[in-house]
Amino acid sequence: MKLPRFYPIFDNAAWLRRALPLGVKLVQIRIKDQAPARLLGELALARELCREHGATLVVNDHWREAIQLGCDFIHLGQEDLDTADLPAIRRAGIRLGVSTHDHAELDRALALRPDYIALGPVWPTILKQMKWDQQGLERVTEWRKLTGSIPLVAIGGVTPERATEAFAAGADVASAVTDITLNADPEGRIREWLRVAA
């Protein structure tokens, strides 16, 4: 399965209103610490916006809500895998992306036959405190060999310039968060990303 090469991550549907009209075709919504009703509303809006623009929505973590809303893709971190009902997710026909940071996590992810495997942080990131050092491009190349035909997503400190390096090292997809959301001109930055990832 071929995925778009640019994969931004946003924490609310308002960002999707800005990004999707520019041509973004794969987007993750990652909402933390939200009241259940508000969470469901945001996810439903994100789903509708993606359908309207012919884009794929990936829901981070909230697999129950993704099933309830008929979303077609979720992303789970390693901690999420401990509690998620993977058979229910598969029965619902939902595609799955999984985060990895080391070989043990990669082995666990490969056993699930996911629709993509993410590796990070490839470069230092300010998004969240992580117990892993930056992985570097050599790890991207190593993961490329180990993941076979499963799409590989590079995340963590990625910029349009670094995305080119990540693609050359073997990543199929490059993901960005703060490179867009903290940019003085997010729309301009998204256009730059789309050119690099075309």
From TrEMBL:
Residues 12-180 form the Thiamine phosphate synthase/TenI domain. One of its GO terms (cellular component) is cytoplasm. Pfam families: TMP-TENI. Pathway: Cofactor biosynthesis; thiamine diphosphate biosynthesis. GO terms for molecular function: thiamine-phosphate diphosphorylase activity. Its EC number is 2.5.1.3. Gene3D superfamilies: Aldolase class I. Keywords: Thiamine biosynthesis, Transferase. The keyword Transferase applies. GO terms for biological process: thiamine biosynthetic process. This is Thiamine phosphate synthase. It comes from Paracoccus shanxieyensis. The lineage of its organism: Bacteria, Pseudomonadati, Pseudomonadota, Alphaproteobacteria, Rhodobacterales.
